[in-house]
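This part of the workshop introduces the protein records we will be handling. A record pairs a protein's sequence with a compact description of its fold. Backbone structure tokens are a discrete shorthand for how the chain folds in space. The question running through the whole workshop is how a given chain folds. The record below serves as our worked example for the rest of this section.
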Amino acid sequence: MKKSFSVTFQLLEKSAQVTEGALLLDAAVEAGLAIDTPCGGQGRCGRCMVRVESGQAPHRRNPHLNPQQMEQGWVLSCTARVAGDLVISVPPQRERERVVAETAAARSALPVWSDWPQYPLVRQLFLEIPPPSLEDNATDLERLRRTLQREHGIDNLSIELPLMRNLAATLRQGNWKVTATVALKDMEGARLIDLRPGRSRGPLLAVAVDIGTTNVVIDLVNLRSGRLIDRVSSRNKQIARGEDVISRIVYTERQGKGLEELQSLVMETINELLDELAQKHHFATTDIEEMVAAGNTTMLHLFLGLPPKHIREEPYIPTASHFPLVTAWELGLAINPHAPVYCLPAVAAYVGGDITAGVLSSCLYKADKLTLFLDVGTNGEIVLGNSDWMVACACSAGPAFEGAGVRCGMRAVKGAIEEVTINSKTLEPTIRVIGNVAPRGICGSGMMSTLAEMLITGVVNRAGRINLDYVASRMGKRSRVRIGDHGPEYVLAWGSRDRQDIVLSEVDIDNLIRTKAAVYAGIMVMARSTGIPISDVAEVLIGGAFGQHINVEKAIQIGLLPDLPWERFKFLGNTSAWGAYNVLLSKYARAKVEEIADKSTYLELIADGTFMSEFTAALFLPHTNIDNFPSVKALLARQGK
């Protein structure tokens, strides 16, 4: 039998008793301690570093640990194993980052507000029920059903046991005048989700939720008026167990309770945001009577607690693409336990409900002209088509543009460098920082801007290699181009006593080029598979949180977007959230999004023999074939590059 050892986490007053050979990460989970593992515990990210203060924890060598760190006792908790009693110290975790709220302009850009007749499937109905008598001794439930049928044409009312237990008391407390909240199920049927004495005059509250891989966004809506009351957002707590969907799928397989833990983490995220809304607007979270959720296929599987294992295994089959209507209590949501929860349908394993929501809110489904829809995030999802046909695909772009895998990368929050220009003579940068504060790092739009400027000024060549001649020409001066600990790099901002320099290195550039190459290759393969020249695309619609920050000029210069006239590009903001909002308000929008999912043809890029050649060709700035980018070719010629 294996021995059992104690693992104590110093200063945190947490400990666990685990068997010999257990991972330190498992010991932390057992002790109730959350240690960020963005790569899903595969030893790739180096974010789960802890220090062994006493005891032995054998671990395999890892490039994230240098010899000096290993001598000091630093290990990765996802690779180090328990070999005796241990005392561990854990570095403090960063405070949860808030997502920058979207501007009102992003909302007004969406052409959806008058498209759908308001017809929510959750209704509040005031009922005056005839009280029983010796002449009319029908049951309380029968009286409720008769009144709903007579006054509102609702037959086949269903009711769950907890509500039925309170039925008699509620009817008599209201003197047979009550407000019934019902969820319409079909042409005539309905399910009772709430019953309160008297007439309810307050708002009928519901929420539309965008469950992103990185962030969760919740819109609070009044179903009576259709008015958006408020929007809140926060980091998805699942990110501590993997920064992309593949890492999270791996995490569900790595240990028996991985799926349960990830489902719990997203519920914690949502419930905390619901509580924030409730406190701000002075209501109870149980007053929320309905939820609509959008997200990629993996996120919705984890939200529902469905095993996502086969999504990452050939032939990439999810458990479901159309999800059953469930109730809040089944998921652990802190709203009315009987409230219906509807998840938007997916197209395939890597084109989910966030994209069907985007197609709905962008109105691509009824476009007369050829339209390209892009959602650039951790996964790059692409839809090409019009009102007659739609083809969808997804490429694993990676989280580089969201700050992950980049040394000084961060999300688009206060302190992030979001725009850069570089003087071609002095190589000095001019930066713009979110919040007009001292820079803390660089976000996706800033990276894109920096990379484009480095190309145009000759700091990097088209292969993404930094020009080391600039280092030699500035010997004795504080050069922006230098050899750092991780190779050649460009300094965007000098550090201070308590802050490191903010740089973009060749390693970072390689990650960015791979990200942009995957997206561009996906676009080109899709265009070729449909026999349509990319120049025929009349409109490019860009959704997603990152999409609203993209500078078209810079995106074309690095080869992320095709070289089309700028006026063809439109930025729509969080199309996933707005699609969920429309589905919440209208049964017609709900029917349309189901139709969109069924109508879309999925193109599996991995099965397409041309994707890798397109991807390889795109691993240059802006592309191996510069003729694909005539505007960039002309600009480089003018600069003598």
Q: What stands out?
A: The chain has a mean pLDDT of 88. The CA atoms of residues 141 and 628 lie 70 Å apart. The chain is about 30% helix and 25% strand.
